[in-house]
Amino acid sequence: MKATRSFSVRPRLPPALAPLDDLAMNLRWSWDKPTRDLFRHIDPDVWEEGHHDPIGMLGSVRYERLVELEANTDFIARLSEASHALQHSLEQDRWFQTRGPSPLRQVAYFSPEFGIAEALPQYSGGLGVLAGDHLKAACDLGVPLVGVGLFYRHGYFRQSLNADGWQQERYPALDPFAMAIQPVPDVRIEVNLAGTPLFARLWRADVGRIRLYLLDSDVDENHPDQRMVTDRLYGGDTEHRLRQEILLGIGGIRALESAGENPQIFHTNEGHAGFLGLERIRRLIHDHGLTFPEALEAVRAASIFTTHTPVPAGIDRFPRPLIERYFTEYAASCGIGFDELWALGRRPGNHEPDPESEETFNMAYMGLHLACRSNGVSRLHGEVSRSMFSPLWPSVPEEEVPIGSITNGVHTATWVFPEMSDLLNRTLAPGWSQDHYTEWANLGDVPDHELWRVREQGREHLVTFARAHLRTSLAARGASLSDARWSDEALDPHTLTICFARRFATYKRANLLLSQPERLRSLLCSTDRPVQFVFAGKAHPADDLGKEMIRQIVMFSADPDIRDRFVFLDDYDISLARMLYQGADVWLNNPRRPLEACGTSGMKAALNGGLNCSVLDGWWDECFNGENGWAISSVEDVEDLARRDQIEADSLFAILEQQVVPLFYDRGDDQVPHEWVHRVKASLCSLGPYVTAGRMVQDYVQELYEPTAAHADAMAASSFAPACDLVQWKDRVIGAWKDVHIDTVDVTPATELGQTATVEAVVALGALRSGDVAVQLLHGPVGQGDEIAEVVTLDMAEAGSFDAQHRSYRGSFTCMRAGRYGFTVRIVPKHPHLVTPIEMGLIAWG
Ligand SMILES: *Cc1c(COP(=O)(O)O)cnc(C)c1O
């Protein structure tokens, strides 16, 4: 019989164990080793079987065991210590508090997914795990930040395989009352979905000192259809996604207010939450009487947008009829027509059809329109983004498109395995993960055999784990005990281990190795220098090509000759990923460049002493230095994809055959591969200080959060008067710009090294004043085609009025290199509240 209603009963702990409850309810346990050890100690089997879930474990552990623990003075002492440590960690001053006054009061960080722990499965892959790591590092650093997301009743799917190797998806229902989240009392969020109200309740997860709010539409007041809005992560059709994004963005702003939060600035992690900007505009119009353009300026000043995709197809887009249905009334409530709202998701120049998208509302365009600071997630991705989004700034040179980059990082305490962490704590100063000044070079002094021993331990852990995992999966696929027996001997703890794990998106080419099966076989089956591979990853449920890649790998691994050294582990998630990072000697990544925006799995492998073998894409493009891993060739100029794949596979095999395998098996008398260990040290020393989420969040604070906070405050002063002035000023400048031009440019060139060249320009400004513009001189040595390779920009000084309409400007520069120099002059708008002079897209060239 199915119950019509149900409720959950939380376990009651004996009084002496009561602090376990607080420890379980704060997700800090997910990266704090003493707390994890404490939970594991309660019942190691239940801990493993229950997927590392403290709350589930406290609910299912036998009462006698609890009574036993209550009497165990050692356990009680550890419990009290962990409990004090939690309390202390919530109150203590951290990096942010100790570095002097900051304009930053609070950031609200919006993301469609958060990957914090396996026990809170609200993520699908890199984007979510990154968001989780962002919160954890913000906690470590004491950055005032709150997170906003959705609570998906079925999370993402659990993966298994059928006998043919085809991915099967299960969506077990999660019970929020049995998870490390708690309801925010007396809060009901309401948003309007095309005329029907949608209600949501609000959950709060505590990630150390960071509060994460999750909206959940599964409440009694909603019609059954409406309850399903937050059913699954990335499930359903376009309209379903739009409904989720309306709840996340618009509902998220309302949720923050209901929860008593008062964020000063807003960070949108990818376009999905973009409607938050609209809701803030609507608020300013209603609460402060601003016009739409004024509110837009104020909102932009307080917004940061991070883009995560290097391909137009990866961007969320919605067809016009859908946006009309959901936003016509909303536009009216902002005092604008629908077309004005529609324009936020469009690029300028409507007469010119967008080749990528027929009449769709592009969430990344809206993100860029509604944020005055934007970034990609690696240096290369910044470049790709400037190119991809350059149509939004048609007259701006591509390299000046106002999108910067902050390279992603990973949360060390979450991802580094205990033995490695101990070694780093011993060698570097404790706190190494948050400190820029850590002497990573000290790792050079660690005896090779000591580091090698830790690597061997990591590999052994993986092998033990993989055997048990395979046994369970085989049983689930119907294998008999004897059929599954081989899994007890699967993988070898001393064999070179190469791992590949990530979402099975086609551009990541998980099956690249399979394109040359004989070459792969000889690597696997070598008698003296064998290689073993471990694969894992989920394909999106709608992505049959991705599932086909999984099937190919599983079918290849079914061969009894190689199944013990080429394995696919199903149901990839945070806990499985962690095992792979600690066991991998080599972390393999072979995407089609430049389609990997950043990639973070290789960073996690590197911090555990693995070596990256990767195409120079995403983060690896800026971090590979010739000795900290390997670079697989990428031949982007070969247009025939099959041909390109073949060339790149050849490169990969050559690296494995000629470099990786020989280096790994080149052992000294002590059986230690010294040259290999030296590479591991080179990898740790070069990457350790850079690839951490601590570095990433510090960069966000210093480069984006603080400038944005100061800017937002300035624009909000005196009831938003500066925002209103800026609108008027922009109108005036746009209206007058047609009369702005450069009349003449004269140069007194330099003829010898070290001499100064002087440039004089006569310009007409029409109705504008000289304070409204900057006349810029861009100069530098020129190469072929008179391209200035490294442009230096300086503002020229006003050198007098020429006549009533004309003014002259002068600038000079010293030529420090022999050879040809070039320069150009241009006029751009200038105002203290512009983040960059080219953001308006107005440039008059000489
Ligand atoms: C790190 C991580 C990812 C991201 O992997 P990429 O390198 O970006 O492909 C995805 N899923 C999980 C579980 C991870 O831990």
Quick structural overview:
The chain is an alpha/beta fold.
List the helices and strands and how they pair.
Layout lengths: L18 H7 L7 H10 L1 H6 L4 H7 L2 H8 L2 H19 L3 H4 L8 E4 L3 E2 L5 E2 L3 H16 L3 E6 L7 E4 L5 E4 L11 E2 L5 E5 L2 E12 L2 E7 L7 H4 L10 H21 L6 E5 L5 H14 L3 H10 L1 E4 L10 E3 H14 L4 H5 L17 E3 H7 L3 E4 L2 H10 L15 E2 L6 H4 L2 H10 L20 H29 L19 E6 L15 H9 L5 E6 L7 H13 L9 E4 L4 H10 L2 E4 L11 H7 L3 E5 L2 H6 L5 E4 L8 H25 L8 H14 L5 H44 L4 E8 L7 E9 L8 E9 L10 E4 L1 E5 L4 E9 L6 E9 L14 E2 L1
Parallel strand pairs: 1-4, 1-11, 4-10, 11-12, 12-15, 15-16, 17-18, 17-20, 18-19, 20-21, 21-22
Antiparallel strand pairs: 2-3, 5-6, 7-9, 8-9, 9-10, 13-14, 23-24, 24-28, 25-26, 25-29, 27-28, 29-30
Helix pairs in contact: 1-6, 8-27, 10-11, 11-12, 12-27, 19-22, 22-23
Bound molecules: pyridoxal-5'-phosphate (PLP).
